[in-house]
User: Which sequence fits this backbone?
């Protein structure tokens, strides 16, 4: 214990970074646990697509979408996502929707915007298309 106190008093900067990292990890863990937004694994997403005919919404750019996308997924223009204009998806409002991006980060923002717009069952593919490909699941080119 004395060595830890000595280290902290001699290395304020390193100790501060350590504390900041611990706080950041706790915050992100709690935020994801308390969020109403569901993050699906590739297995859970596959089950949702097969059992409940989930609508897969790909928010990546058109060029990325053409390189490879999940079978049956639909791409939405970036301008519509930026404006939170989901009027083209009104028919899908009651269906389960899985939002997909490259790594799963930008999809969270889009999914929460969709929830605010009245979409009932919106989820995010955890890890995005990279996780999908990493799991060896089929991609349509």
Assistant:
């Amino acid at each position: 214990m004395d060595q830890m106190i000595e280290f902290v008093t001699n290395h304020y900067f390193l100790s501060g970074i350590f504390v900041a990292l611990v706080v950041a990890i706790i915050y992100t863990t709690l935020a994801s646990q308390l969020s109403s937004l569901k993050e699906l694994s590739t297995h859970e997403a596959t089950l949702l697509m097969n059992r409940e005919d989930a609508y897969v919404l790909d928010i990546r750019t058109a060029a990325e979408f053409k390189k490879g996308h999940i079978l049956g997924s639909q791409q939405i223009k970036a301008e519509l996502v930026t404006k939170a204009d989901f009027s083209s998806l009104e028919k899908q409002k009651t269906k389960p929707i899985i939002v997909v991006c490259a790594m799963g980060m930008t999809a969270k923002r889009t999914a929460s915007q969709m929830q605010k717009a009245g979409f009932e069952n919106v989820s995010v593919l955890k890890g995005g298309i990279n996780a999908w490909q990493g799991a060896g699941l089929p991609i349509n080119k």
